[in-house]
Amino acid sequence: MLKEVIDRLISLKGRPLVFIFSSFIHGAGKSFLKNKFKEMLEKEGYSVYSISTGDIFRELAARNNMSIDAFVDYLYKNPNIAQKVDLELDKSIYETVSRLIKEKQYDVILVDSNLASYYINGKNVIKIKVVSDPDIIAKRVFENPRKSDRSYNSIEDVKISILKRTEEDKKRYARLAKEVEDPFWKKVYSNWGKDVFDIIINNNSTWEDSIKQLLDGLRKITR
Which domains does the chain have, with CATH numbers? Predict the structure, then answer.
């Protein structure tokens, strides 16, 4: 079933296919779904390259001897440094994916990034938005503390933290849109939040249900 859909997409859009997973709220599950999709694709025999802002961010945090959450807090308190980090992350993904598209070494490229949908474009690019209810996200995080090194006293505490970080992201991107001089990146940050997506996945239920939504969306594209 998956192979039929992917083969059809490759015949229509070319190789490599680029799938971008984005979300406008922390904890929606885009990274988890991207990883599950990667497993499914590799099981079908496709060559897959996966790149994530989270992976690059972890490397930067480790380089600074900080946990991810501590590094996030540090950047929120130091907006000038945060701006440089944001640009470094986005430019790294943009340059890597652009190169891989030209090289055509892989069947599929998976991108886990909230901004990539605004700077990676093309016939072979499929943009996916993952949404989830803040209450459901908070419950998941609270019941699975391994996903964060933060300590929470209640589900409501988690929800407040998630919404706060999401709001801080909005402010950060708005500031970047004003302060970045490069016109290309200024446009990227100015467009953040606009609807540019081919598929929207509601990740309030199980990951199996979300993958089904993804496949249903891909089938519609092939018609």
Answer: 8-212 (3.40.50.300)
Alpha helix stretches (DSSP H) within 117-154: 134-143
Cα gap 134→142, rounded to integer Å: 12
- pLDDT tens, residue by residue, 15-53: 999 999 999 998 999 999 999 999 999 999 999 999 999
Question: Phi, psi (5° rounding) for residue 125?
Answer: -100, 130
Band (pLDDT 50/70/90 cuts) for residue 156 is very high
Pairing state between β 108-112 and 17-22 = parallel
**Rounded to whole angstroms, how far apart are CA atoms 16 and 60?**
28
Instruction: Answer for the pair 33, 50: CB distance below 8 angstroms, yes or no.
Output: no
What is the distance between the terminal CA atoms of the chain, rounded to a whole angstrom? 15
**DSSP three-state, residue 6:** helix
In angstroms, how far apart are the furthest CA atoms of the chain? 51
pTM of the model: 0.92
Burial group, residue 195, by CB count within 10 angstroms (0-12, 13-18, 19+): exposed
